[in-house]
Each structure stands twice: as C-alpha cells, then as structure tokens.
Amino acid sequence: MNIILLGPPGAGKGTQAAMLVDERNMIQLSTGDMLREARTSGTEMGKMVAGVMDRGELVTDEIVIGLIREKLEGDAKGGFIFDGFPRTLAQADALAELLVETNQTLDYVVELAVDDEVLVERILGRAAEAVAAGGEARADDNEESLKVRLMAYYKQTSPLIGYYHAKGQLQSVDGLGTMDEVKASIGKALS
Ligand code: AMP
C-alpha cells in the first residue's frame, strides 16, 4: 500500500508518518528530511537549496522528483508514505509516472485538515520545545518563514486536493485532536 499524506506545514504529517512506519512497516519518504540531510552533509544540492528552504519557499520540482525517483527504485517493504511530496501539480504528475514505471500503485491520499491558527501555534510551539530541550529550532520554524510556507501551501499545494478528489483517491481526515485520535481516523481512511 502506497499513500500520500497531504496537508499544510504543522498538520502532523511527519508525526503520523512515523506512527505508520512503526505499526505497518511502511517506509516514510519525506522530501523535507531528505533536503535537510543534504544540507547537513554539505552536498552541492544542499547548499543550493538552503536559502530557499529557510525563506519557506519551495525548491524546484526537478530536485525533489529526483530524490523520490531514487527511493522508489529501492525496497518498498510495507509500502511508501509520501510525506511533504508531492507539493505541486507537476510533482503529482511525475509521481504518477514514476509509480507506473516502477510497477506500483497509489492507493490513498489522506488530507490532514487543520485550521491555520492551530498550525501557527503548533509550529512555533515545536520551535520553542526544540530550544528548551537545548537544541536548535528548524531555521524555517519562525513567523516570517511560516507565512511564506503557508502561502506556498495554499497557492501551489492545495490544488492537489481537487486533483486527487477528481481522481477519486482523496480521503479527508480531521487533523485536530490528539495524535492517537488522528491516527485512528487515518486507520479508518485506509481500511
Ligand atoms: P517540510 O519538512 O516538509 O516542511 O519541508 C521543509 C522545506 O523543504 C519546505 O519548506 C521546502 O522548502 C522544501 N521542500 C520539502 N518538500 C518539498 C517538495 N515536495 N517540493 C518543494 N520543496 C520542498
């Protein structure tokens, strides 16, 4: 089973993906994590995307499609969870082609629906927690980048809701509530 978790920044995609990995032996493909890794390891690509990410804008389709292509050629175990990908219609089309090429299917698209106010609270809370724990907040977890990230979501990513709805693949889940409540709703959507 391959699924997409769709939703704005702070909707809980990463948290829910991690739970699906633990319980269903699925593989989480987070393009955000892959890009942050590229930055930490100092690759050319990592250096190229750093400023764009910190501002909260989207990196090019070509880069993220390349990252996903590599992973789809590997072992699929219990299936892939696409977390933070696709984020544009071009990425969604590319994903459909890649799945055909690798003889796989897209089984569900789960939208996590959350109010903007909750997103801002969650993300600024996540930054404060990271600092309180002695670490560093994500460079893009600040109010200014967050505004850009939300706008990128509404302008570039939210059209995917209509796209997958039209394909009959969209399941919408209430992303408010506790982690376990959201997890239970996703479980229902996938059954
Ligand atoms: P995330 O961890 O999913 O919030 O992603 C962090 C940042 O990485 C985003 O704000 C973008 O700059 C970049 N990014 C992650 N995934 C994508 C994607 N599918 N398309 C374009 N940019 C992405």
Structural descriptors:
single chain; 191 residues; alpha/beta; 5-stranded parallel β-sheet; 5 strands; 58% helix; binds adenosine monophosphate
Summarize the biggest pleated sheet.
5 strands, parallel
* Strand order, largest beta sheet: 2-3-1-4-5
Distance between the termini: 11 Å
What level of helicity do the residues show? Answer: 55-70%
Mean pLDDT: 95
List SSEs in N-to-C order.
Answer: EHEHHHEHEHHHEH
Low-confidence stretches: none
Q: Which molecules other than protein and nucleic acid are bound?
A: adenosine monophosphate
Radius of gyration: 16 Å
Overall morphology: globular
- How many β-strand runs? 5
Question: Could you provide a short overview of the structure?
Answer:
The protein is built from nine helices and five strands, in the order βαβαααβαβαααβα.
Give an account of the 3D structure.
With 191 residues, the chain is α/β, with parallel strands linked by helices. 58% of the residues lie in helices and 12% in strands. It has helices at 13-24, 31-40, 44-55, 61-72, 89-101, 116-132, 143-157, 159-166, 179-189, and strands at 3-6, 27-30, 80-83, 108-113, 170-174. The chain has a 5-stranded parallel beta sheet with strand order 2-3-1-4-5, with helices on both faces. Helix 2 crosses helix 3 and helix 4 runs parallel beside helix 5 (89-101). The termini are close together. The mean pLDDT is 95. The structure holds adenosine monophosphate.
Task: Give a topology summary.
Elements (H helix, E strand, L loop, with lengths): L2 E4 L6 H12 L2 E4 H10 L3 H12 L5 H12 L7 E4 L5 H13 L6 E6 L2 H17 L10 H15 L1 H8 L3 E5 L4 H11 L2
Parallel strand pairs: 1-3, 1-4, 2-3, 4-5
The site of adenosine monophosphate has 17 residues, from helix 2 and helix 3.
